[in-house]
Amino acid sequence: MTVHQPPEEPKTELIDKLLAGALSSLPVAGGAAGAWYEYLMEGPYNRRLAEWRARITDVVNQLALKVERLLDNEMFLDAFIQSTRIAQTTHQQEKLEALRNALENSVAPDAPDVDEQARFFRLVDQFSARHILLLRWAQDHPGGRGGSVHDEQRPNAAGIWGYPLPVLDGHDDLRTLLMDDLVSTNLVGALAGFPRAIDLDDKYFVGQVTPLGSRFLKFISGTDEQDSRDIG
pTM, whole model, 2 decimals? Predict the structure, then answer.
């Protein structure tokens, strides 16, 4: 009879050391505010921290095998602290996955420089999951035309090319706001003659994803996603 060994628990020494350092930098308030802070740290905050720890343990362990003296790598430490801080502020899975991927890509051979990485982390913090999903949709639709209002390739309740996106049809103000944010951060270029994303004659138009937008998406995408887009 074959005996199956239980799966080995991922090694957590590195991640525990990193998280201990990140937590030591958090400010502590006193009085009533301190009591609420302690409650949040012991309850919801610790739960989110534990979930983030589980999400990135394998990433850190794999990077430690590839990058010499990982814990002394300032680029990685910057990315770790920024991603961990932002991860505590959101429950949106798309953003958490983007942060995990960004951490993994922070020390890649073709990683953005430290200033651009800092900007990209700020954008993940600033954006909602819908921003990221809409930017991916725009990248998958070069030329900027989403089709008619009944076209399945247009952002709608069914989602964006396999990415779940809660209802945008019938929410013109929200859709325009999301695209305006992408244009204002130079991730998407505005259409010539139009300062913002608009509906025109029942067609949904957006600008082209810029080189900066493409670099941002690459930074927050996993290796499998990057490979599939390169092939496609």
Answer: 0.71
Q: Are 203 and 145 in contact (CB under 8 A)?
A: yes
- At residue 213, does pLDDT exceed 80? yes
Which of helix, strand or coil describes residue 185?
coil
What is the rounded distance in angstroms from the CA atom of residue 105 to the CA atom of residue 193?
Answer: 36
Contact criterion met (CB below 8 Å) for 204 and 147: yes
Q: Computed from CA positions of residues 123, 111, 69, 8, in that sequence, does the dihedral angle turn out positive or negative?
A: positive
Q: Kindly tell me if the per-residue pLDDT of 199 is higher than 50.
A: no
Q: From residue 154, how far is each of 167, 177, 189, 230 by CA, in Å? A: 11, 16, 19, 23
d(CA 232, CA 225): 10
Two tokens at 135?
A: 């930017």
Angle between helices 93-105 and 211-219 (to 10 degrees): 90
pLDDT in tens, 143-163: 544 443 334 444 443 344 334
Kindly report each contact of residues 181-184 with a partner whose C-beta sits within 8 Å and lies 24 or more positions away, as own/partner. Answer: 181/127, 181/131, 182/131, 182/134, 182/135, 182/138, 182/213, 183/207
Q: If you compute the radius of gyration of the chain from its CA atoms, what whole number of angstroms results?
A: 20
Tens digit of each residue's pLDDT (9 = 90 or more) over 82-125: 999 999 999 999 999 999 999 999 999 999 999 999 999 999 99
